[in-house]
Amino acid sequence: MKLVRFHSEAEQELAEHEAWYRQRSEVAAQGFLLELDHAIAAVAEAPERWPIGRHGDRRYVFPRYPFTLLYRVHGDHVFITAVAHQSRRPGYWHHRK
Predict the structure, then answer these.
(1) CA distance 35 to 91
(2) Per the count of CB atoms within 10 A, which of 30, 44, 55, 69 is most buried?
(3) CA 7 distance to own-chain centroid
(4) 4 forms bridges with which residues in the sheet?
(5) pTM value?
(6) What is the side-by-side strand order in the sheet with 67-74?
(7) Could you tell me whether strands 67-74 and 77-85 are parallel, antiparallel, or unpaired per DSSP bridges?
(8) pLDDT tens digits, residue range 26-53?
(9) Is 84 exposed, middle or buried (0-12, 13-18, 19+ CB in 10 A)?
């Protein structure tokens, strides 16, 4: 299993998404966080399993929430570049290293 690190902007996105759900429903917020935990565990366990996009990011699509976890594999760790809502402009995270 690989160590997981977040880009600071991905951490900020995560906090914003959680707050949005929490304002509407505690149950929905908990569901979102559980889905995120599952996504992180899955990519940490087998990061090569998910497809690579055109710009080198791999993408794990959440099954129940409209989000994609975008990440890169760097040696001993997985670097999460975005927790992207699927309606956002595609590729907005490409500048993140």
Answers:
(1) 22
(2) 69
(3) 10
(4) 78
(5) 0.85
(6) 3-6, 77-85, 67-74, 58-61
(7) antiparallel
(8) 999 999 999 999 999 999 999 999 989 8
(9) buried
DSSP 52: B
Residue 68 bridge partners (DSSP): 61, 84
Give the pLDDT band of residue 56 (cuts 50, 70, 90): confident
* CATH code 3.30.70.1400 for 3-85: no
What span, in angstroms and rounded, lies between the C-alpha atoms of 83 and 73?
16
Which tokens go with 32?
């979102």
* Contact indicator for 73, 58 with CB cutoff of 8 Å: yes
Structure tokens, 1: 């299993």
For the record, the structure tokens of 58 come out as 């791999």
Q: 3-state class of 77 per DSSP? A: strand
Please give the Cα distance from 32 to 72 (Å, whole number). 22
Q: Which helix (H) or strand (E) holds 32?
A: helix 26-45
Q: Measuring CA to CA, which residue among 50, 29, 28 is closest to residue 39?
A: 50
